[in-house]
């Protein structure tokens, strides 16, 4: 990033000292959100089902000087969501300023071709997960004194 761009960014606003959890932060909109938050100085934690992709992105962010950590997490799993919040709690000393519920999944096929497992996976990832993460993150958001929740959605959900 050019020095003048960085100077302009710092003049607009800063997220230094803030913490953020962005689900699905290794691609697409989630990736852009992680980059933007980290670029403004926030410490960011993200997750992905794909360990190889997660490790590649974390290396990229380290090279850019961003403070981003992450872990593998299947958000359709209640146990994985609880482990994720446990990791975030440890990483951010029990405080979280920003929760971005971004991760989602879609299986494209005709309605009659969906299996019950397909439906359960999509509902657990796209609907149960954000709701449950808000519940789990509530104590951390409250402890920060400045908690914010962002939901990313799509017409595909």
UniProtKB/TrEMBL annotation:
This is Tropinone reductase homolog isoform X2. PANTHER family: TROPINONE REDUCTASE (PTHR42898), TROPINONE REDUCTASE HOMOLOG (PTHR42898:SF28). Pfam families: adh_short. Signal peptide: none annotated. Keywords: NADP, Oxidoreductase. It comes from Populus euphratica (Euphrates poplar). Belongs to the short-chain dehydrogenases/reductases (SDR) family. SDR65C subfamily. InterPro entries: NAD(P)-bd_dom_sf (IPR036291), SDR_fam (IPR002347), TR (IPR045000). Gene3D superfamilies: NAD(P)-binding Rossmann-like Domain. One of its GO terms (molecular function) is oxidoreductase activity.
């Amino acid at each position: 990033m050019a020095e003048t761009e960085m100077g302009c960014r710092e003049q607009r606003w800063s997220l230094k000292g803030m913490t953020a959890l962005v689900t699905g932060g290794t691609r697409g909109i989630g990736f852009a959100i992680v980059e933007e938050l980290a670029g403004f100085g926030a410490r960011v934690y993200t997750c992905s089902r794909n360990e190889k992709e997660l490790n590649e992105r974390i290396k990229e962010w380290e090279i850019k000087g961003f403070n981003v950590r992450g872990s593998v997490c299947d958000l359709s799993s209640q146990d994985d969501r609880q482990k994720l919040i446990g990791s975030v709690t440890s990483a951010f000393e029990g405080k979280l300023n920003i929760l971005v519920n971004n991760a989602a999944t879609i299986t494209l096929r005709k309605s009659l071709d969906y299996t019950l497992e397909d439906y359960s996976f999509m509902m657990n990832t796209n609907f149960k997960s954000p709701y449950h993460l808000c519940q789990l993150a509530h104590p951390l958001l409250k402890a920060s004194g400045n908690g914010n929740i962002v939901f990313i959605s799509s017409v595909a959900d």
